[in-house]
Amino acid sequence: MNVAVVGVGRIGLPLAATIASRGHTVFACDVDPDRVAFVNRGENPLPDEAGLGDLLRRTVSAGLLTATGDTAAAVARCETVLFAVAVDVDAAGRADLTNLLAACDDVARGLQPGALCVFDTTLPVGTTRRVLAPRLEAGRRRVGKDLFVAFSPERLLMGRIIEDLTKYPKVVGGVDRLGGERAAAFYRTVFGSEVLTLASAEAAELSKLSEGAYRDLNIALANELAQVADAHGLDINEVLRAANSQPYCHLHTPGTGVGGHCIPVYPRFLMQGEGPSALSALGREVNDSMPAYAAERVAGLVGGLAGKRVLVLGLTFRPDVAVTPHTNAVDLLREFEARGATVEGHDCLLGEADVRGLGFTPAREPLAGFDVAVVHALHRGYAGMDWRAVAPLLFDARNALDRAAVEARGVRYLGVGRPASPD
Predict the structure, then answer these.
(1) Cα diameter, the chain
(2) Spatial distance between the Cα atoms of 306 and 291, rounded to a whole number of angstroms
(3) What is the 3-state secondary structure (H, E, C) of the chain?
(4) What does the alpha-carbon distance between residue 83 and residue 138 come to, in Å, rounded to a whole number?
(5) What mean pLDDT comes out for the span 27-51?
(6) β partners of residue 172
(7) CA 419 to CA 113: how far, in whole Å?
(8) Is there a common fold for 2-199 and 290-415?
(9) pLDDT value, residue 1
(10) For the residues 272-298, what does the mean pLDDT come to?
């Protein structure tokens, strides 16, 4: 079959390449001409995405995957259109649908009769039916007659998207019954994995928001427990290991907040919609407060941060993936600078321009002579780091380091909800 994937980013490109690798003809549609040219050369713009480079080379050379900037023309040749256009929040904390609506307008101009359109961009409940389906109908197609629309959320972790595409059941909900059935049949055909067909697009939208809200609230609880541990001089890692040994407890790891495209964003989609969202709002408040809490803990250990040199290591939102939206590294920068510190940043996955783009002064190598080092994302590239040369105090923002190994190098250790090493 012919499939159009609209939005060739962190989700859309691995999705397009995977479908093409199953023998289908895929048109990867994007408004970025550089991204289109890159893909058509069979080159991989996402080197940290496992397995993607090989899939791109094979599918492009076989003529199964073609990138294009002419979305309407590509859609006119396809029975199925998948939307993978990112949706973020605007300055008011509401879903910003600007790019997705523009993509709908492009798609509407090319839809052939009987086409299936599936949105797998996470959305506020009701958006598929009330906002996006009518936008597609502007192309003179009618939902349920010659146009079928469904929502099917991505359930993927960046860095292992290709693996995750078939690892978990695919959740599908249609704007009407036939739309849901068509979407479920499509995913069974291309992936051969289990499909959970829900009663409506709204149910599928809420299922995805439920996943994100659960994780955000779980982390918020872990962060509160970490603060209780600090108040009593306890090690939260020990506490969590004990609690999680009971099979009904699944507490996450505390840290200096939550970053990335997903977890800090999706609870806000609940907060803007109909129905209660007090818990989601509280979880966001707790997690958003953690960078300031971390800076205060460090300040208390070093006698204040005024005039201190602080290095933040690993500026992406999580280890070994070069993705920076909503990274807490920039929140740490803000809080340390607000207390008078001079802050520099380093990330072995990012270029100097990207580091500056996040607001950091790039740290020069060798990394040495700082008063405090903050390990925000522990990339594999930092394995074997000589912490003693870097700084006398290391703050582990994700509780990811081996405390004993750090202390064995004569460096003072501080974690989130973990006591500081003796001075």
Answers:
(1) 73
(2) 17
(3) CEEEEECCCCCHHHHHHHHHHCCCEEEEECCCHHHHHHHHCCCCCCCCCCCHHHHHHHHHHCCCEEEECCHHHHHCCCCEEEECCCCEECCCCCEECHHHHHHHHHHHCCCCCCEEEEECCCCCCCHHHHHHHHHHHCCCCCECCCEEEEECCCCCCCCCHHHHCCCCCEEEEECCHHHHHHHHHHHHHHHCCCEEEECCHHHHHHHHHHHHHHHHHHHHHHHHHHHHHHHHCCCHHHHHHHHHCCCCCCCCCCCCCCCCCCCCCHHHHHHCCCCCCHHHHHHHHHHHCHHHHHHHHHHHHHCCCCCCEEEEECCCCCCCCCCCCCCCHHHHHHHHHHCCCEEEEECCCCCHHHHHHCCCEECCCCCCCCCEEEECCCCHHHCCCCHHHHCCEEEECCCCCCHHHHHHCCCEEEECCECCCCC
(4) 17
(5) 95
(6) 197
(7) 64
(8) yes
(9) 95
(10) 94
pLDDT tens digits for range 84-138: 999 999 988 899 999 999 999 999 999 999 999 999 999 999 999 999 999 999 8
The class level of CATH for 2-199 reads: alpha beta
**Distance from C-alpha of 395 to C-alpha of 376, rounded to nearest angstrom:** 9
Band (140; pLDDT cuts 50, 70, 90):
confident
Going from N- to C-terminal start, the domains of the chain cover 2-199, 290-415
CA-wise closest residue to 165 among 267, 50, 269, 40? 50
8 Å CB contact between 116 and 186: yes
- Beta-carbon count within 10 A of 311 CB: 23
Q: State the first-to-last Cα distance of the chain, in angstroms, to the nearest integer.
A: 66
Per residue in 148-165, pLDDT tens? 999 999 988 888 999 989
What is the distance of C-alpha 273 from the center of its chain? 22
* Residue 299 structure tokens: 């300040």
Homologous superfamily of the 290-415 domain (CATH): NAD(P)-binding Rossmann-like Domain (3.40.50.720)
Looking at residue 159, what is its pLDDT? Answer: 87
> What is the rounded distance in angstroms from the CA atom of residue 355 to the CA atom of residue 303?
28
